[in-house]
Specification:
The chain is mostly helical. Helices cover 65% and strands 4% of the residues.
């Protein structure tokens, strides 16, 4: 493989926005659509992008949950524990 040719997964990883960027863009789309002044074709484009972002976000959350389960696994069994926030009270 030539140096200028990356693998498909390398390109996908480099092009993938972070979870925070995805949520931020999704919030922007929701706000724009809630205003109700977009032309139909633009609203449909925004809706499609919103669905795509929603799926990316859900996938990231599932992957994070799987990592947490792996990290908290004890004695061959998952030891799910409630998350305790530091700022309770």
């Amino acid at each position: 493989m030539r140096p200028e040719e990356g693998s498909v997964s390398d390109k996908a990883t480099a092009a993938s926005p972070s979870f925070e960027q995805t949520i931020s863009e999704l919030e922007t789309i929701v706000n724009e659509m809630e205003q109700g002044d977009l032309p139909l074709h633009e609203a449909l484009k925004k809706f499609e992008r919103g669905i795509e972002l929603s799926r990316l976000s859900q996938k990231a959350l599932v992957e994070a949950e799987q990592k947490v389960r792996i990290l908290t696994e004890q004695n061959g069994e998952a030891a799910l524990q409630d998350f305790a926030a530091d700022n309770e009270g």
